[in-house]
Every structure is written in C-alpha cells, then in structure tokens.
C-alpha cells in the first residue's frame, strides 16, 4: 500500500519509540517526538544525553535499533527519498565545503535537493540572508556568523516542511544569534514549517520554542511549554530547571539489560 500524500494537518515529524544501542550502551531509549506544522520544539539536555543521535536518526544518517520516523506522513524506512525531500538541516559542527563560494554551495546543494527554478531561489536566499557581498567569497573564510547565515540559506533551499537545527547559534555573538532567531521564527510564521531545535542556551529556548523536551540518558523526562514547566516545577527560570534536571539525571549511557 503506498504512503499517504502529506496533508497540512498531520505532524511534520512523528518519531515513535526510537531506540539506539551501541553494544550494551543504550544511547536513546524509547523516545517519541511529534512536531506540528508551525511549531518550534526545543530538544534540550546535557552533553551526551542523546540529542544529536536523535537528529541523526531522523535524518536517516543512523538507523534506529527500534522505532520509526515519519516526515510529512512518509515513513523514512519505506519512502526515504520522499521523506527526506521534505526536510533540511543545519548545525555548527557540519560546516559547508569551505573551498566553495557561497553561491557555489547553494547551487550544489540545490541540485542535490532537485530545487526547481534554482537560480531564482538562490538569488532570493542570498538577498534574504544578507549574503550579496559574500556570494563569491569562499565559505571557509567567512566569520562564524556569516557561515551560519549561509548554512541556514542552504537549509531553506527546498522550502522544508521540517527543519532540524542542532545548536544553530552556538559560537556566534549575541546580536548575530538574535538575528538568526528572528529569521527562523519568521520562516516558520510564513511557511508553517515545523522545527526541532537543540540548544544549550535556555534563554534562546524560552524565547523561540513553543514546547520543550528535556532529555537525559536517552530518555525524555519533561515535555511542555517553557512557561508551564517553569511554573510546575517551581523553578526561577528554564535555565535553573535545566540545571536541576541535569543534576538529578546525569547524562551517562545506560547498559542494556
């Protein structure tokens, strides 16, 4: 039976029962995540909690030990190309090829994604992300903030329904980080895309995320709106709650029984 045609009402991401084990270590333990159209969901937790492993399973880079991923209604295991055509990704630890210019990077990845009207799309993104003066500069010589803008422009090439952002504002100055947050939230408002956003910056998470998932030792411990979680747990801020959860549940891998 063929996969359903994606509808505007269904979750852009539905990950169910995700598990990932390495030998006797359980890196991700029965995690389920849903992201609705127009929703920004924060995935937070200490280093080693399993955030990047989850992102990589959603992207199909890692195969889950158990569980399933659906993007826009398409099962990643059964309709990989159709599912991933609806998604895109940006992370500071995954820089674009530094020996290519900004324009060349956008063209290469646009071809990979099969973007129609690619030249016009590149021009629109170069303008939208203030990259006109850098279009012929090699990406590797740009500042960290400029490289982040290029990475986000690349992530918008295929107008994704699901945008995966792993620490998108790490290592950039506060003014640039604010600009990046503004651009992403504007994109969500305009397109009703869904976003899964990992960050260690709890101010950022509280500002941009509609909902936040606290992850530790591969498990989701808390799930709710930032203000609701702060109130329910009697914390002064989301950062204080993060520290409390991380202290009570240190991120060390569990052995599989």
Q: Within the largest sheet, what's the order of strands?
A: 6-7-8-3-9-10
H/E element sequence: EEEHEEHEHHHEHEHEEHHE
Q: What is the count of β-strands? A: 11
Largest sheet: 6 strands, mixed
What is the number of helices?
9
Q: Which stretches are low in confidence, meaning pLDDT under 50 for 5 or more residues running? A: 1-5
Notes on the structure:
The protein has helices at residues 51-58, 80-84, 102-112, 118-128, 144-155, 174-191, 202-208, 226-232, 238-248; strands at 13-22, 25-35, 40-44, 66-71, 74-75, 87-91, 162-166, 194-198, 211-216, 219-224, 254-255. By secondary structure, it is an alpha/beta fold. It is 35% helix and 25% strand. It has a domain at 93-159. Strands 6-7-8-3-9-10 form a six-stranded mixed beta sheet, sandwiched between helices. A five-stranded antiparallel beta sheet has the order 5-4-1-2-11. It contains nine helices and eleven strands. The termini are far apart. The relative contact order is 0.18.
How would you describe this structure in keywords?
257 residues; alpha/beta; 6-stranded mixed β-sheet; 5-stranded antiparallel β-sheet; 35% helix; 25% strand; disordered N terminus
SSE layout and pairings?
Elements: E1 13-22, E2 25-35, E3 40-44, H1 51-58, E4 66-71, E5 74-75, H2 80-84, E6 87-91, H3 102-112, H4 118-128, H5 144-155, E7 162-166, H6 174-191, E8 194-198, H7 202-208, E9 211-216, E10 219-224, H8 226-232, H9 238-248, E11 254-255
Parallel strand pairs: 3-8, 3-9, 6-7, 7-8
Antiparallel strand pairs: 1-2, 1-4, 2-11, 4-5, 9-10
Helix pairs in contact: 3-4
């Amino acid at each position: 039976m063929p996969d359903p045609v994606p509808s505007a009402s269904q979750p852009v991401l539905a990950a169910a029962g995700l598990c990932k084990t390495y030998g006797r270590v359980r890196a991700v333990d029965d995690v389920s995540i849903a992201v609705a159209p127009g929703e920004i969901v924060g995935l937070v937790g200490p280093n080693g909690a399993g955030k990047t492993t989850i992102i990589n399973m959603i992207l199909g880079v890692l195969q889950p030990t158990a569980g399933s991923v659906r993007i826009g209604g398409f099962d990643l295991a059964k309709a990989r190309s159709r599912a991933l055509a609806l998604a895109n990704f940006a992370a500071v630890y995954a820089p674009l090829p530094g020996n290519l210019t900004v324009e060349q990077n956008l063209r290469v990845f646009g071809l990979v994604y099969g973007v129609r009207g690619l030249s016009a799309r590149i021009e629109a993104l170069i303008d939208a992300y203030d990259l006109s003066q850098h279009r012929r500069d090699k990406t590797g010589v740009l500042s960290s903030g400029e490289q982040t803008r290029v990475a986000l422009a690349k992530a918008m090439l295929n107008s994704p329904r699901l945008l995966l952002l792993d620490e998108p504002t790490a290592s950039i100055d506060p003014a640039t980080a604010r600009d990046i947050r503004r651009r992403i939230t504007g994109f969500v408002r305009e397109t009703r895309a869904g976003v899964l956003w990992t960050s260690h910056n709890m101010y950022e998470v509280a500002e941009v995320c509609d909902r936040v998932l606290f992850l530790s030792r591969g498990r989701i411990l808390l799930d709710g709106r930032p203000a609701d979680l702060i109130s329910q747990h009697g914390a002064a801020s989301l950062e204080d709650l993060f520290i409390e959860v991380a202290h009570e549940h240190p991120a060390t891998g569990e052995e599989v029984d």
